[in-house]
Amino acid sequence: MARKKSEWIDWIKALVIAGLLAFIVRAFLFAPIVVDGPSMLPSLENGDHMIVNKFSYTIGEPDRFDIVVFHATANKDYIKRVIGLPGEHVAVKDDTLYINGQEVEEPFLTSKIKMLEATQSYTFDFSIEDLPGRYSEIPENHVLVLGDNRGNSTDSRVLGLISTDQIVGKTNLIYWPVDRIRILNE
Predict the structure, then answer these.
(1) pLDDT per residue as tens digits for the range 63-97
(2) Which architecture characterizes domain 2-176 according to CATH?
(3) What is 104-143 written as a DSSP string?
(4) 10, 75, 146, 168: which has the fewest C-beta neighbours closer than 10 Å?
(5) Domain residues of the chain, as ranges?
(6) The pTM is what?
(7) What residues have CB less than 8 Å from 154, skipping those under 6 apart?
């Protein structure tokens, strides 16, 4: 009888430890998120399940073209791509991204822009001065984010610059649905 009781106690301890570890991993290291809407097409599709690495920016800073999850409102997180970094001037003219006046390629958009080139603009022209806040360059601890589907995305053009404090983490792993499993490198 004492042996059975000891086994039960061991099982309960193991389950409590496993639950505690799962909580720590989810709260501080990794969390699942589901893409909601078309704003990141063609890179991400509505319903893609992804893993957010919450730890990545604890030891580093966002890089250009990172796909990040951030708190857009108290109740809603958004997934967008980092385009502009602190100290930079950002503008888009004729579907071309300019950082500090230099043309920067966006390889994740190339095929989409070429497809639309003859009929319409993919990204309406703007510069950082046109965004909420009317900055001349991105201040420290802020980034400019855009959705890949520029015609259908609520991003920095509407929300303004995003504070790095709002960023939950970086994401680049799609784990569901099975036919879309991949790591995004761009």
Answers:
(1) 999 999 999 888 899 999 999 999 999 999 988 89
(2) Ribbon (2.10)
(3) E--TTTHHHHHHHTTT--SS--EEGGGSTT--SSPPTTEE
(4) 75
(5) 2-176
(6) 0.81
(7) 39, 72, 78, 147
